[in-house]
């Protein structure tokens, strides 16, 4: 089975006005275009060219969801649950309608995810920085009452980061939040170069989009990660994160469970976010892929998905099929041929679904494609 997939971009407010159109070589619509989903998740199953949607083919059994993601503005600061937390939350909310605005859990699955940059630069906030490093950052900005109070709280005992995030998001620290944001803005435009300049400019940019939002100060506690094209970042369950700008391919477990902690007009449930948040600090490694030749793999420690990047230079690339597979074209001219004899040419920004009944496929043409499949 070889089927052509497409979908309509989702118009979230943080979406880019140009990135997806530029990728696909079309005129921008003038509206934000944030994500294109390739999968069978009931919230937005892919369209099948032959007729219908992918969930009608798979029965909703795909363990992963593949996306194109285009961030023109910062996404919400967010965290995703473990599978145990998701099941418990889904059960607790079983009496609520699936579209009830008080719902936190849209399904009973976890949502680890991997993003690989397609743009030359992709910026994100990924994980919590060690407290000692954040104190060094604060030493480089002008002091005021809010900065002093944050520094005092970071020097406390116990699970400091959980306590500080709860304080910032709890609704009683707005004066301190405003002070800290003011100091960050001043530091971001100073003339003297400093170790934290790039990070401070990024946080000041977030503050321009979300003035006065406590999430801006939460962002100040997080690792600022900048990816180059072809580099990736894996985000485990419980890891606080927010994408800031850029175009990428994202793959995740088939879930839409998101607990938000700022930079959004959507629902924020602070107690639930704190309950599932992993506050262990540390750098989140940049993944540069493994392998040589045409195929670059991005190993991840979860069984829900695996992702490979395929560079096509005119020579056919034969690939095995192990389970339901997708091929997403991201540049050039990509053709997918199944061993059964079916052949599809893919426009950039569209995908092919390869059923588990196929034993292998061959990609040909020139350009780039990503291969998504279940993990091991």
UniProtKB/TrEMBL annotation:
Transmembrane segments: none annotated. This is mannose-6-phosphate isomerase. Keywords: Isomerase, Metal-binding, Zinc. The keyword ATP-binding does not apply. Residues 2-130 form the Phosphomannose isomerase type I catalytic domain. It comes from Microbacterium algeriense. Belongs to the mannose-6-phosphate isomerase type 1 family. One of its GO terms (molecular function) is mannose-6-phosphate isomerase activity. The lineage of its organism: Bacteria, Bacillati, Actinomycetota, Actinomycetes, Micrococcales. InterPro entries: Man6P_Isoase-1, Mannose-6-P_Isomerase, Pmannose_isomerase-type1_CS, PMI_typeI_cat, RmlC-like_jellyroll, RmlC_Cupin_sf. Its EC number is 5.3.1.8. PANTHER family: MANNOSE-6-PHOSPHATE ISOMERASE. Its cofactor is Zn(2+). It catalyses: D-mannose 6-phosphate = D-fructose 6-phosphate.
């Amino acid at each position: 089975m070889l089927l052509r997939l497409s979908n309509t971009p989702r118009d979230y407010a943080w979406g880019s006005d140009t990135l997806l159109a530029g990728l696909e070589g079309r005129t921008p619509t003038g509206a934000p275009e944030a994500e294109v989903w390739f999968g069978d998740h009931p919230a937005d199953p892919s369209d099948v060219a032959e007729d219908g949607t992918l969930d009608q083919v798979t029965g909703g059994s795909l363990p992963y969801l593949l996306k194109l993601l285009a961030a023109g503005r910062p996404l919400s600061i967010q965290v995703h649950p473990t599978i145990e937390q998701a099941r418990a939350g889904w059960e607790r909310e079983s009496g609520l309608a699936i579209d009830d605005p008080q719902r936190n859990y849209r399904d009973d699955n976890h949502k680890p995810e991997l993003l690989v940059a397609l743009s030359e630069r992709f910026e994100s906030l990924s994980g919590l920085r060690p407290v000692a490093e954040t104190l060094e950052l604060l030493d480089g900005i002008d002091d005021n009452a809010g900065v002093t109070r944050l520094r005092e709280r970071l020097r406390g005992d116990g699970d400091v980061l959980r306590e500080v995030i709860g304080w910032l998001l709890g609704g009683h620290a707005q004066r301190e939040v405003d002070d800290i944001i003011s100091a960050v803005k001043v530091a971001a435009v100073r003339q003297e170069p400093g170790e934290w300049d790039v990070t401070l400019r990024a946080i000041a940019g977030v503050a321009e989009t979300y003035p006065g939002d406590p999430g801006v100060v939460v962002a100040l506690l997080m690792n600022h990660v900048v990816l180059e094209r072809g580099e990736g970042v894996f985000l485990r369950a419980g890891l606080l994160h927010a994408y800031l700008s850029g175009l990428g391919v994202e793959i995740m477990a088939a879930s839409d469970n998101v607990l938000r902690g700022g930079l959004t007009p959507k629902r924020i449930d602070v107690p639930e976010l704190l309950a599932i948040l992993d506050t262990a600090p540390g750098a989140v490694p940049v993944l540069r892929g493994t392998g040589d030749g045409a195929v670059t793999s991005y190993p991840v420690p979860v069984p829900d998905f695996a992702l490979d990047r395929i560079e096509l230079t005119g020579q056919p690339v034969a690939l095995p099929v192990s389970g339901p597979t997708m091929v997403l074209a991201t540049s050039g001219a990509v053709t997918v041929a199944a061993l059964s004899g079916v052949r599809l040419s893919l426009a950039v920004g569209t995908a092919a679904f390869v059923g588990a009944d196929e034993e292998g496929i061959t990609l040909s043409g020139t350009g780039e494609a990503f291969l998504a499949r279940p993990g091991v």
